[in-house]
Amino acid sequence: MGGTFDPIHYGHLFIAECSRHKFNLSKVLFIPSGRPVHKKRLDIQPPERRLEMTRLAVEANPNFELSTIEIDRPGPTYTVDTLEILHNLNAFTQEYFFITGADAIMEILTWKDVDKVLELCQFIAVTRPGHSLDGINKVLDSLLEVQRSRFHIYETVGILVSSTEIRERVSMNEPIRYLVPDNVEKYISANGLYK
Ligand code: ATP
Ligand code: MG
Asked: Distance of CA 194 to CAs 85, 144, 152, 161, 168, Å?
């Protein structure tokens, strides 16, 4: 599961856990992005901070793991490179599923080397409130069957939270407790993030 994770919140953790269960995944790797190619926001927190918050958020779940693979790599982040590195690390013995919310899934078709990306992993598109899965089905139906079969739509309980909402709430001194794990909330407040 990739993301900017600025900060990580229960929406991320929930879709990761649900997908792991539904698709029988052995574990979920959380991969905070280095320099996201598609993110236009300039005041994004430095990688070390997003990494630390992700570490704190996943530590309580033995099936979750943090990966620094994108942050450690210089230059812009391309998923195709990440997937090739992951496959090479285990000699192509593992199958990978990329977990995304319904809002992010369609961007994939614009990614670098999308054909290669679809060979290297399958995609799980999970319910996100405010983003219809119907439209996604239409777009997917226009793909070739080999590509179509690499996408899985997964409808589950929608969690209405975003990192944008968290950042705004912190800046307005509104509570974020129960939207992010306690240790992430403490990290944000101890380091004065998003003020
Ligand atoms: P921002 O508001 O800064 O864009 P975000 O909450 O969308 O942050 P990202 O790091 O952009 O979080 O998202 C990483 C992945 O998690 C994306 O695939 C996104 O679709 C998914 N995601 C984030 N929040 C939710 C949610 N509440 N429900 C379902 N999917 C989510
Ligand atoms: Mg987002």
From this structure: 33, 43, 35, 16, 8
In a domain, 153, yes or no: yes
- Given a cut of 80, whether residue 1 has pLDDT beyond it is yes
- pLDDT band per the 50, 70, 90 thresholds, residue 36: low
Give the domain CATH number at 147.
Answer: 3.40.50.620
Range of the domain at 129: 2-190
Q: Establish if 134 belongs to a structural domain.
A: yes
Q: Using 50, 70 and 90 to split pLDDT, how confident is the model at 38? A: low
Distances (CA, A) of 62 to 27, 94, 118, 181: 8, 19, 28, 16
Number of domains within the chain: 1
Q: Is residue 195 part of a domain?
A: no
Nearest CA to ligand 1 atom 23: 12
Distance 91 CA to ligand 2 centre (A): 32
Q: Is 67 in the pocket of ligand 1 (CB under 6 A)?
A: no
Model's pTM, two decimal places?
0.95
Judge if the beta carbon of residue 104 lies within 6 A of ligand 1: yes
